[in-house]
Design brief:
Layout lengths: L27 E10 L9 E13 L4 E9 L6 E11 L4 E8 L4 E2 L4 E5 L5 E9 L2 E10 L5 E9 L7 E10 L3
Antiparallel strand pairs: 1-2, 1-11, 2-3, 3-4, 4-5, 5-6, 5-7, 7-8, 8-9, 9-10, 10-11
Length: 176
């Protein structure tokens, strides 16, 4: 448990790696393809697809960044517009990720906290409520290359015993 209450994976013994540049890959413009589960943790298997773009820019010499996103579903017309603020804590060597949806203009709390492993996979956790019941939330970054990245969000109603993925984003770098 971190001081924010988020659960993170155990760290390897020995020297901790400096992860303050782990999100450097995200800097720039991206095309997004997003699949979102309509009703998480209900047994639903109905997904909505979205397409759009994002742009991330560094702050504080790379120890933070701001990522804006706008996607729209051709099927439903729904638009998701928001931003992610990512802050690196040099003391804990962890990132805190804050999401804000343009619909309500509120920065989500608690932050989703975690780090990248040496193999390049990033995992970030927090505890939230979904329709009045406590859940564990996991963000996972993987398959990161100079021109692509994969992101998934999953919820666990049983403290991490089982997970249901409810948000999948595949990103492709926009080159000018």
């Amino acid at each position: 448990m971190t001081s924010s209450g988020a659960t993170t994976e155990p760290r390897e013994s020995g020297t901790q790696r400096d992860g303050q540049h782990d999100f450097d890959f995200a800097i720039g413009r991206w095309k997004f393809h997003l699949r979102r589960l309509k009703r998480p943790l209900t047994g639903s298997t109905e997904w909505v697809e979205f397409d759009g773009e994002s742009e991330a820019r560094p702050i504080w010499g790379g120890r933070a960044n701001l990522d804006t996103v706008r996607v729209e579903s051709a099927e439903t017309g729904e638009v998701i517009e928001g931003l992610t603020l990512r802050l690196y804590n040099t003391e804990t060597r962890e990132w805190s990720l804050y999401w804000a949806n343009a619909t309500n203009g509120i920065l989500s709390l608690p932050p989703t906290v975690g780090s990248f492993a040496a193999d390049g996979r990033g995992e970030f956790y927090d505890r939230e409520e979904l329709e009045g019941r406590p859940i564990l939330v996991r963000y996972a970054w993987s398959e990161i290359t100079p021109t692509s990245a994969h992101f998934e969000q999953a919820f666990s109603p049983d403290d991490g015993v089982t997970w249901e993925t409810n948000w999948i984003t595949d990103q492709t770098r926009v080159t000018n």
